[in-house]
Design brief:
binds ribose-5-phosphate, alpha/beta, 14 strands, 225 residues, Alpha-Beta Plaits, 6 helices
Length: 225
Amino acid sequence: MNDKELVAQHAARKIEDGMIVGLGTGSTANCFIEALAQRHHQEGLKVQTVSSSVVSAIKARELGLPLLAVEQLKGLDVYVDGADEVAPDMTLLKGRGFDLVREKLLAGASREFWVLINPGKRVGRIGERFPIPVEVMPFAWQLVKESLAAIGGKAELRQTENKDGLVVTSHGSLVLDTAFAEAFDSHTLDTVLNGIPGVVEHGIFSHLTSAVFCARDGRVEEQSA
Ligand SMILES: O=C[C@H](O)[C@H](O)[C@H](O)COP(=O)(O)O
């Protein structure tokens, strides 16, 4: 069993009968969906799920997990997802994929948010390895880019892998990947980004994480808020 499967199974074992479970997006979240489906089928665990992306919804449906639409939700018990960076205070950077808006919506609406990682995701500060993904309304990208420059951010529109077009998120936004030359306080930047007109969402997840489960040397370490 690899680290992603190990940490996914650890999280899936904590799910209880009757819970509404949010499914994240990405390779680690995929392992969790598989582990949860296994418990649902083998142990008769009764859960309802809601997905942060079309990809996760398709996977959940294929594996026979009961799936709710986000529109039906008034809240959920736990949201389980991976992350790109995790700071010591459990602030996250997410959004290397295309599903940032629904990911943050579900994380914020959930009673608990569990983040599944390996030690390679830990950083001293947010933005250490990746630029900050900022989702923008397509017509606003140039003006938002100027606003980001005014606070010290160098923003580039995210291109498709083979550089023949722009990435469009599942929400229909463009992404400005924004690097800051100077170290910044992630909570302050979170607030500042939230206040820029034309910004739909961004990848800093502050004060949302309840627990980080980290697979290391065949064991899972837990860090709780
Ligand atoms: O938008 C992407 C998500 O934030 C993912 O959860 C994140 O990129 C981690 O993905 P993975 O588990 O594949 O490393």
